[in-house]
Amino acid sequence: MIIFKYAEQLARYIQQQKTAGKQIGFVPTMGALHNGHIALINQSKQTTAVTVCSIFVNPTQFNNPTDYQLYPNTIERDIMKLEAAGCDALFLPSIAEMYPRGTTGLEHYDLGYLETLLEGKFRPGHFQGVCQVMFRLLNMVQPHQLFMGQKDYQQCMVVSRLLTLMKSGIQLVTCPTLREPDGLAMSSRNMRLSLHDRQLATTIYQCLVFIKQQLNQGVSWPVIKEQAEKMLTDVGFRIDYVELADAKTLEPVTVTIQSYPGARVALIAAFLHDVRLIDNMLM
Ligand code: AMP
Question: Which domains does the chain have, with CATH numbers?
C-alpha cells in the first residue's frame, strides 16, 4: 500500500492508474478503523481495480470540541489493517494540506431541509463540515465510485446531495452496517465506552429491533416511540432523538397506518455518559 501525505502526489498516482484504464474506488474515513470500515474496502476491491482510503479527522465537522479532541487515533494499527485488507493507497493529509487557508470562513452548501432535522438539528454545522471535507477529498481523489456506510444514513443522503451540487458523475455506493455479535453497530467511538457502558450500548440495537417488531404488529408510532425511549433512558442513555422517517426523504412519518406506502427507517442518537452513538434500521 502506498501512503500519500500530499494531494499532488496522490493525484499523479491516480492519473497513472486511470491512464492504465483502471477504475478508482474511494473509502473516506476518520481512522480508528474497525471491520465496518474494512467491509467498505472489501466492497471497493470487489468492484474497482484500485482502492484508495483516506484517514483524516476533519475538524470542521465536529460541533463538540471535546469529541474532536478525544477522537481515537490508532494510525499504526489502521495501516496494518488496510495492508491486510489489500488497500492500494492511503491518503493521510494534514489539516494544512486539506485547508491551506485555514478552517474559518469556509464555503457553505445548500443542503435544504436535510440540515434541519435529526443529525443536522442536533449537531449544528456538522453536515457543512462533512461537505467541506468531502468536496476537497473528492476533488483530490477523483474516484469513479465512492463507498460509504448506511450506519451514517443521513450523511449518505447529504453526500448524495453534494454530488448533485457538484454535478459530479461519481457513483455513491451505500454499504450495510456491520455489527458486533450483540448487535451494536461498529463505530470508532465504541472504543471510548467503559466496559459497563459497552454492555449497555447494545440497547440501541435492541430498540431498533423492538421498533420493527411493533410496527409489524400495527402498534402506533407514538406508543412505540415512548416505549423505545424508556428502554434507553432506563439503562442511562441521554436521548437526542428516536425517530421514524421516510427512507427516501428522511421526513418524519407521522401517520400510524401499517401500510405506509414507502420504505421507512428508524433512527436513534443517544449519549452514554459523554459518548454519542447513532444507529438506524430500515423497517
Ligand atoms: P468514520 O470513520 O466514522 O467517518 O466512517 C467512515 C465510513 O465508514 C463512513 O462511510 C461510515 O458510514 C462507515 N462506517 C462506519 N461504521 C460502519 C459500520 N459499522 N458498518 C459499515 N460502515 C461503517
Answer: 2-175 (3.40.50.620), 188-282 (3.30.1300.10)
Number of the ligand 1 atom closest to the C-alpha atom of 155: 12
Residue 272 sits at the vertex; the CA angle it makes with 119 and 184, to the nearest 5 degrees, is: 80
258 assigned binding-site residue: no
User: What atom in ligand 1 is closest to the CA of residue 150?
Assistant: 12
pLDDT digits (tens, 9 = 90+) for 145-183: 999 999 999 999 999 999 999 999 999 999 999 999 999
What is the dihedral angle through the alpha carbons of 74, 80, 84, 88, rounded to the nearest 10 degrees?
90
Q: For 90, what's the count of Cα atoms within 13 Å in the CB-facing half-sphere?
A: 23
For the Cβ of 177 lying below 6 angstroms from any atom of ligand 1, the answer is yes
Across the chain, which distance is largest between two alpha carbons, in Å?
A: 58
**Predicted confidence (pLDDT) per residue in 95-107, tens digit:** 999 999 999 999 9
Q: Is 155 annotated as a binding residue?
A: yes
Instruction: Specify the residue with its C-alpha closest to ligand 1, atom 18.
Output: 36
Q: Does residue 273 carry a catalytic annotation? A: no
Distance (Å, rounded) from C-alpha 84 to C-alpha 137? Answer: 24
**pTM of the predicted protein model:** 0.97
220 labelled ligand-binding: no
Mean pLDDT (whole number) for 252-270: 84
Q: What is the pLDDT of residues 117-134, one digit of tens each?
A: 999 999 999 999 999 999
**37 CB-near residues (< 8 Å, 6+ apart):** 27, 29, 53, 81
